[in-house]
Write a structure and sequence with these properties.
Elements: E1 3-9, E2 17-37, E3 45-66, E4 84-105, E5 112-124, E6 132-135, E7 137-146, E8 154-156, E9 162-164
Parallel strand pairs: 1-2, 2-3, 3-4, 4-5, 4-6, 5-7, 7-8
Antiparallel strand pairs: 8-9
């Protein structure tokens, strides 16, 4: 494993990041496939980001969205600058030999809103208890998703009909022992 992430957005984003499409990406032998990271003190926003046709091979974590990335260049950051993360879509996500398919780590202060997953099949390298991890997230899983999505996401069938509404948006189900 060499690189930290195939594609990374953040954490520095003093204005904002929006209206981005990333597609036809192959990431192999890396710690992470794609990553979005921000934290209190960063301000700005990450919104309207679309990932399509991602392929992962031999990764620790396929998809990471993290709002508690607490690295700042110095102590002069504004702790009242709260970023927002919303309207992030993942469609056509495939892979093999991935330890954890998805880790979405929002926080009470910076929840992740309107994230969606569709057409996803990621083969797992090792059996773990939580392969699709979520905390403080609002969103949806559409159609067949493997591994099974976290309970924080609303479940829809392939035709877009609601199958199951999430019972918990804030459960902390992350396992950092990768």
């Amino acid at each position: 494993m060499q690189s930290c992430a195939g594609v990374s957005i953040g954490s520095e984003m003093s204005g904002g990041i929006s209206n981005i499409t990333l597609e036809n990406i192959l990431v192999w032998n890396s710690k992470r496939g794609v990553r979005i990271k921000t934290a209190t003190g960063r301000g700005g926003y990450i919104r309207d980001v679309s990932y399509r046709n991602l392929t992962f091979d031999n990764l620790l974590v396929g998809i990471v969205v993290k709002t508690d990335y607490n690295e700042h260049p110095d102590d002069g950051f504004d702790p009242k600058a709260i970023p927002s993360v919303e309207n992030i879509t993942f469609h056509g996500i495939y892979g093999r030999d991935v330890r954890i398919a998805v880790r979405i780590q929002g926080s009470e202060e910076i929840p992740i809103r309107d994230i969606s997953f569709s057409d996803m099949n990621v083969g797992i390298a090792k059996k773990k208890k939580r392969l699709f991890q979520c905390a403080y997230v609002w969103g949806r899983a559409i159609g067949k998703i493997f591994p099974a999505p976290c309970e924080n996401l609303d479940q829809y069938d392939e035709q877009g009909r609601l199958v199951r509404r999430s019972t918990s948006r804030n459960a902390t189900l992350t396992d950092y022992d990768v």
